[in-house]
Amino acid sequence: MSEPENIDSTGPRRGFLYHLAAGLAAAVAVLGPLGVGIAAFLDPVVRSKKKKGDFIRVASLDAVPPDGKPYRFAVITDRNDAWTHHPPEPIGTVYLRRDSDSAPPVAISSICPHLGCGVHWDTSADNFLCPCHNSEFKIDGAIADPASSPSPRGLDHLAVELRGNDIWVNYLTFKVGVADQIEV
Amino acid sequence: MLSTLDHWLEDRTDYKRFFHETLFQRIPGGARWRYCWGTTLMLAFFTQLITGVFLWMHYSPSTQTAWESVYYIQHEMTGGWLLRGVHHYMASAMIVLLAIHLMQVVIHGAYHAPREITFWLGLLLMLIVLALGLTGYLLPWDQRGFRATQVATGIAGASPMIGDQVKTLAVGGSEYGHHTLTRFFALHAGVLPGILIALLVAHVAMFRRYGVTAPEQTAKSDAYYWPDQMLRDAVAFLMVLVTVTLVTIYMGTELGPPADASQSFNSARPEWYFLFLFQLLKMVELVAPGETGTRLGAHIIPGAVLAVMALMPIVGRWKLGHRFNIGFVIAIFIAILGLSAKALHEDYNGETKASREFLAAKKLALAESERAYEIAHQGIAPSGILSMIRTDTKIAGFRLFERHCATCHAHYDTSGEFTEPLATIKPETWSAPNLFGVGSRGWNANVLDHEQFISDQMFGYKDSPFVEGEMAEWLADNLADPDDETKTNIANTVAALAAMADLPYEAKENAESGEQIEAGIEAINSTFSCVDCHNYEGQEFARVADDDYFFEAPDLTGYMSRDWMLAFIRNPGASQFYGERNDRMPAFAPHDDQALNQVTDAELETIVDWLRRDWSLESTDEP
């Protein structure tokens, strides 16, 4: 490409505002469509959150032997994922345990508070174990060894209601990787 | 004619100058093999663009179609396995080539002025390539990618200030779903490659402006890029391509079991090139537990390493600085190798408990994915593979047995011949019979053999009341040392009981042993007189009238048939089974109202069908 030879530099001088207008017009032309996209992209953080944490029937009381050991149960409920309405299906699991016939059942989330993997009850170690980064928790969900625990907090306890002979659990999820229990 | 056209085109486009500039770039000291890494890396990226576009033509990002469409590419489409394999393994090759390229640049001081910007652009390119690897891992929507990516977004979400927002925007909401896939796919196939191409154009333009970094003393004379260097570049890349293709052919490209938020996945690991970060996090957290460790291992240390690398062109201005840079990059390289090796060793050593569990989980995952392919091959329902897996006899039956039965029962082949992981559950201890092959000829033979009957595989488990029971006593008295006639009678009884169970995997034997079965029924009724204690087809009614004794041994009518097993698991303490003599087995479904039972009727049927290994897909009504 050769240098243009005849540029009219003798015409009326363009003022600062003129340059500014040209720059702005070009910027809006380029960034305007990007703004439209970003507005929609931000939807998940902007959209008002729907009510969280419904109590869900998880099991009948008889299904949890009163031996103090944790038993795993599926949490079954319907849910929406963008355009799909899923009929009731397992969306996660909780551990239920009760120490005696008279003791109220306790619900412990099976989501590891470290980085969100699923913990399981290890009968030989009498601990909850997480297979991802080896977090360990005691039977009540507390951190097994605070001196070397990847998880910043113990397993999350969930609120339980006894309705007749049924155990209902407030199925909530919490932010992972932080010491405080913050609802998601 | 041709030359006229050539002139016309040249006149309007100046294209010859473009080719000339590209091909006749001056290379100081002539062509060298060591100059080929940058071009090889670029060609690897072009491979990803091309294979990626073709994958795009067949991929469908939604929670009901992602795994399904990748399955179809991998297992049904002609050449799909090769396409996906080359894309998958070329991504790994790019990481290796990146490491070589970067080491070479630092060691040869190619970041020195005036090439600082080329270097920084290269670092950004490296991050984009890693981001492409991370986003691509999720797209097949299998448990591996699903679980590993959840950890990655968890780490992002745990970062201070904007962590939550970044995570929510990446995930497209608070939970993983359709929009996680659509967003990751847009990032992977649109945004990231777009940025990469823009940066690559700038990176290459800067490179061309300053040329290769030649060794200072060279006796050889300069040469043009074409043809010597281009040949070397092409050969180097072809070797990469051949390697990638061979790895694809011989190793295959994994597609794990479909993502399932309700099913934990005990062998979740990141891609191999992120294993060092995974291991770093684990090790840092051992000394700095909790939040501090996560920050340090996942944010601060990797961030600091990147910062040091970004400062290399500035630090490298001093002679000592350059030496520091070389030392640093070699140290990091060795650290990455060491951490990756340690991560692999911890998982695959087969000695520690964690490793054994990892390996077992991996084996199970492989079996689950293979079963998923079998199901998918029959045609996937519109609701997706997951809905089919959740009701599949083999997978769901295994999970139900594990949840409800495996606290007491084992289920594995003691001979070690049958190794199907989805039918093998061997807890460290058990306190009830090993139910593998329950109702089969092998099982029945054990029931009629005193030594077997009181073994820990059958009714001689820990604290069993049956060791001292009447059946054991009868076996010891009557069948402990059988003569030939008794042996025949035992074999006949075994066949008769097996015919009642009517197990699908013994259908052929049952059909062929009509006479034996008849003789066996005769033995039950008279020779062995099983009916003295057991009910069989109402026979016992005529013989025993004592109510205390009546129905205290399991009913042999349809012993271990599907209906018998369903009724037994519903309530083993029912009068036609163990009655008062039931050991510890709970009644899983004694109520008419399903909501009151531990298992639903459908789950009960799944468990029974699984025990009967009735899981052939051909015989079902699935489309």
What can you tell me about this protein's structure?
- By secondary structure, chain A is of the alpha+beta class.
- Chain A is 16% helix and 29% strand.
- Chain A is built from 2 helices and 10 strands, in the order ααββββββββββ.
- In chain A, the strands form 3 sheets. Chain A has a 4-stranded antiparallel beta sheet, with no helix packed on it.
- In chain A, β6 (127-129) and β7 (136-137) form a beta hairpin.
- Chain A is elongated.
- A two-stranded antiparallel sheet of chain B has the order 1-2.
- The longest helix of chain B has 33 residues, at 178-210.
- The chains are: A alpha+beta (184), B mainly alpha (623).
- At the A-B interface, β2 and β3 of A face α7, α8, α11, α12 and α15 of B.
How much helical structure, as a percent, in the residues of chain A? Answer: 10-25%
Q: What's the β-strand tally of chain A?
A: 10
Helix content of chain B: 55-70%
Instruction: Kindly provide the radius of gyration of chain A, computed on alpha-carbon positions and rounded to a whole number of angstroms.
Output: 29 Å
Shape of chain A: elongated
Mean pLDDT of chain A: 89
Number of helices, counting only DSSP H or I runs of 4 residues or more of chain A: 2
Strand fraction of chain A: 25-35%
Shape of chain B: elongated
> Could you give the order of strands across the largest sheet of chain B?
1-2
The count of strands of chain B amounts to: 2
Radius of gyration of chain B (Å)? 34 Å
Largest sheet of chain A: 4 strands, antiparallel
Assembly state of the chains shown: heterodimer
What gap, in angstroms, lies between the N and C termini of chain B? Answer: 63 Å
Strand order of the largest sheet of chain A: 2-3-4-8
Structural class of chain A: alpha+beta
Mean pLDDT, all residues of chain B: 91
